[in-house]
Amino acid sequence: MSPKKTIRDLTDAELRGKRALVRVDFNVPIEGDRVTDDTRIRAAIPTIEALIARGACVVLMSHLGRPKGKPDLKYTLEPVALHLATLIKAKVDFVETTDSDEALRATHDLEPGTVLVLENTRFLGGEEKNEERLSRSLAELGDVYVNDAFGSAHRAHSSTEGVAHFLKPAVAGLLMELELKYLGETLQAPAKPFVAILGGSKISGKIDVIEALLPKVDRLLIGGAMACTFFKAMGLETGKSLVEADRVEMAKGLLARAGDKIVLPEDALVSASLDDGASAKAVARDAIPPDQAMFDIGPKAAQAFADEVARGRTILWNGPMGVFEKPPFDKGTRAVADALATATSHGATTIVGGGDSAAAVEQFGLAAKMSHVSTGGGASLEFLEGKELPGVVALDDRGHA
Ligand code: ADP
Ligand code: MG
Question: Is the entire prediction scored with pTM above 0.90?
Answer without folding.
Answer: no
